Amino acid sequence: MSESNTTSHGGKRANAGRKSHYTEKTVVMRVPESKVMAIKEWLKPVPKDDRQNTIQLNPIHLQTELSIPSPLESVAAGFPSPAQDYIEDYIDLNKYLVKNPASTFILRVDSLSMKNAGIDAGDQILIDRKLNAEHGDIVLALINNEFTVKRFMQDKHTEHGFRFWLKAENPDYPDIYPHGEENIAIWGVVICILKKLK
User: Fold this and answer.
1) Which of 6, 24, 116, 134 lies in the 20 to 30 Å Cα band around 78?
2) What 3-state DSSP class applies to 96?
3) Active-site residue, 2 included
């Protein structure tokens, strides 16, 4: 076979091969099989705290009234009989969702730190500034001029009364334990999650 008919296979090609996840040299280690999952979890990147310097809060404008029929009886499954007169009253969604229009705002969430509380990135929440935060409430907190949405938690301390902290409802995000030198304020209490299912 002449050299002109031979073809070259293999060899290093530009942009070929497995891409490295790291910018430095990697090494191979032998670890006990029972520790593999724990090490993989430890190596996962931890999301940074989701505090934001600026957020867009939209005030509520109650311009129209929207009344929805309210059933007379609760229904476990299915629908009540068409022959049954089950309409008792009507609910105005404005009054049902918003108790204090002048102090209520809408915020679009841009984080997954409250995912296990039913708040996904892109969801909108209603925040009432007039309400005082109680243990277990979801709040919009202002920490050193940075905003974050977390669950307000209180622990009782015998020496100093109550201590509060902010709980993330996603194990991938850190809880926030305020320090004495930090400037912290609870800006408002979340009263509703506006989530469209379809």
Assistant:
1) 116
2) helix
3) no
